[in-house]
Amino acid sequence: MSNLDKTDFDILNILQKDAELTHKEIAFKLRKSVSTVHERIRRLKQEGYILKTVAILDRKKVNKNLLAFTQVLLNDHTFETLSTFEKKVITFPEVMECFQMTGTFDFVLRIVTADMDSYHEFYRHKLATLPNITTVQSFFVLSETKSETAYPI
C-alpha cells in the first residue's frame, strides 16, 4: 500500500460506502478534478485495489433466510486433498465464502440457504459427498448485529 496517498485512500473509503457515486460526485466531495478522480479509480482497479463493484442484497428479501458458519475437518492435509476440497466446495452456490483456517478445523464456510430443509439438502447431497471429510460442525446464525463490507483503511 506504500504507493497510495491520502486521496487514493479517500477514494477507496468513499467507494466502499457507495460505489454508485459518479466520478463528478466523488471529485466534489474531495475537491479534486473529475479527470483526477477518474484516472485514480482506473489505476486503483488496474492495480487490483478495487476487485469488483457489486450490489449488496438483503439476503432475507431474496429468500436466503438461513445463514450458517460450517467448520470442516479433512482426514489428511496433502496439497491434493486440500486443493480438491477447495475446487469443489467453491462451485456450490450456497457457499458464499470459504476460508482455510489454522486450529482444529481446516475450513470455515459461510453458507446461505432458504431454510433448514434447504440446508439439510445442501449438506446431504453436496457437502457430505465430498471426499476426505472427517468432521462437519455447523453454527446457525440467530441474529445479525453487524455485517460490514468496507475495510477500515
Low-confidence stretches: none
Amino-to-carboxy terminus distance: 10 Å
The SSE string, one letter per element, is HHHEHEEHE
Structural class: alpha+beta
Helix content: 25-40%
Task: Assign the CATH class of the largest domain.
Answer: Alpha Beta
Summary?
The chain is of the alpha+beta class and 153 residues long. It contains 5 helices and 4 strands, in the order αααβαββαβ. A 4-stranded antiparallel sheet has the order 2-3-1-4.
Descriptive account of the structure:
The chain is α+β, with helices and mostly antiparallel strands and 153 residues long. The protein has two domains: 6-46, Winged helix-like DNA-binding domain superfamily/Winged helix DNA-binding domain (Arc Repressor Mutant, subunit A); 59-140, Lrp/AsnC effector binding domain/regulation of amino acid metabolism (RAM) domain (Alpha-Beta Plaits, 2-Layer Sandwich), CATH 3.30.70.920. The chain is built from five helices and four strands, in the order H-H-H-E-H-E-E-H-E. The chain has a four-stranded antiparallel β-sheet with strand order 2-3-1-4. Strand 2 and strand 3 (107-113) form a beta hairpin. The protein is elongated and about 55 Å long.
